[in-house]
User: Fold ABC transporter substrate-binding protein from Bifidobacterium italicum.
Amino acid sequence: MSSTSRSHRRPRRLLAAFCAAALLAGAAACGTSSQAGDDATMRVAYLSTANYLTTVRDEPFLDETMGPTNVDFTGPYNPTDAYAAVLSGNADATSTGTGSFINFIAQGQPWTAFAIEYYDGNSQGIVAAPGSGVESLDDLKGRKVAIIKRGGTGDYVLHKALEGSGVDVDDVDVVEMSPSNFQAAFTSGQIDALSSFDQNLAAAMATPGAKLLANGKDYDNHNVSIHIVSRDFATKHPEAVKAMYRALVRESEAAAKRPAIITDAYRHFGASEEVANQIAHFDVPTILPIDADGRAMLEAQAREYVDFGFIDTMPDIAAATMDCGA
Assistant:
């Protein structure tokens, strides 16, 4: 596992010590003008996907944007290991999908989200396997559809896409499967379709004979990417979190001008040219604050998660988010 460190050795401002107590009480308001926490070290467990918390680690502007905050990157992690690293105290920040974040806080896990990575939804969807004979969503009745896990993005996509079809989710044979087995199962006839996202979706779409049945642009999609820190770090170092938000905004602006930032990252992580070329057609994400509109989007998805039976009750979104755009 590789590790990247960026160190800042600027002197601590006297104002930071003077204001520390007040900031600890107001950590949820990321837009404070005080400087306490600026000289913190944020340990980022980055994923092997091209989200902006992963790609920003190589940007020359990161040191300038973070100011006196140190950033240590370790990874790449798979999502499960990244979450465990933060929860065990070995890292402070990572990334996930908004659905997983909702599941985490519904379980009472101590996370704080600080940035939404928004895209139009065309990087998540359902693809019929070659030779399956599946031509539409209605053909999925009684068929095997693979997802990574119940309540995850693939499960969400399946529920949302089937809402407008003649098939109920209960009529589908949903198969939980490790993504490392997706492509073999998809091409060998073990499954009839795949409901997934990102590189897994691109690999399925690039398979000769496969057919895209639906993507997130075809329904009212609320599931996007989100960047999160431990609640303890957010409480102690709100200015460090705000600085990282600003860095992600700059990375978003850079990718809008040069989308190869995204496809180059996937190639670095081992994506084939066929998969990278498919990913190049996906929407380039934008970083948004978790302001009133951002919270409303998360709350709408949380209500869907209750309706789908993924969680029992609505979690407190406001208590688990920071508005870094204020």
